[in-house]
Amino acid sequence: MQAIVTAVSSSPGHSFSKSNRGVIRLLAGLGVEGDAHLGTTVKHRSRVAKDPSQPNLRQVHLIHAELHDELREVGFNVSAGAMGENVTTRGIDLLGLPAGARLLIGASAVIEVTGLRNPCVQIDRFQKGLMKAVLGKDEQGNLVRKSGIMAIVLQGGEVRSGDVIRVELPPGPPRPLAVV
């Protein structure tokens, strides 16, 4: 199956969910044009409170549509953008990508995976019990965060539903994703 974008979303305010759009524009070094998380330094409110000069490693949030499918099967009402992602994908193992992997999206956009999204209490405010549903354990008992990955924009461009996603793995041994 070819990896594709199934939806794009953004929000000018710090709301939990983002509205679906026909197209979003990624801006190199900044993020999603018109989105509350646009910028070179952190925009997530809890991180700004700690140190507003930290680099923004969370310019673009991606979630795999397969997670939405999984959550709907157990009774949650989720759709693209509902969990705050900018780009919803299908056919790519986002959580299995190493840090530093590059995603070439559509005609010109290039983003670099920085790490995992750590779900916060807002997720349970959105739908009770959703936090537990997006956290799991692997065979060794390690915590697995399923609520998507974060990236920075290396090369800007427009991204829309139906765009193909190509993966370029970084050189050297893979670095597992950590929370950013």
Task: Please supply descriptive tags for the structure shown above.
single chain, 180 residues, alpha+beta, M1 Pyruvate Kinase, Domain 3, eight-stranded mixed β-sheet, three-stranded antiparallel β-sheet, 13 strands, 13% helix, globular, pyridoxal phosphate binding, MOSC domain-containing protein
Q: In terms of topology, how is this protein built?
A:
Layout: E1 4-10, E2 19-21, E3 24-27, E4 31-32, H1 45-50, E5 60-64, H2 65-73, E6 87-90, E7 102-105, E8 109-116, H3 122-126, H4 130-133, E9 135-137, E10 143-145, E11 149-155, E12 157-159, E13 165-168
Parallel strand pairs: 5-6
Antiparallel strand pairs: 1-2, 1-6, 3-4, 3-12, 5-11, 7-8, 7-13, 8-11, 9-10
Q: What is the ordering of alpha helices and beta strands? A: EEEEHEHEEEHHEEEEE
Which runs of at least 5 residues are low in confidence (pLDDT < 50)?
none
> Architecture, CATH level 2?
Beta Barrel
Instruction: Classify the helix fraction into a percent range.
Output: 10-25%
Mean pLDDT: 96
Number of helices: 4
Strand portion, in percent? 25-35%
Query: What about the largest sheet?
Result: 8 strands, mixed
CATH H-tier superfamily: PK beta-barrel domain-like
What does this structure look like?
The chain is an alpha+beta fold. The chain has one domain: PK beta-barrel domain-like (M1 Pyruvate Kinase, Domain 3). 13% of the residues lie in helices and 32% in strands. The strands form three sheets. It has an eight-stranded mixed sheet with strand order 2-1-6-5-11-8-7-13. A three-stranded antiparallel sheet has the order 4-3-12, with no helix packed on it. A hairpin with an 8-residue loop joins β1 and β2 (19-21).
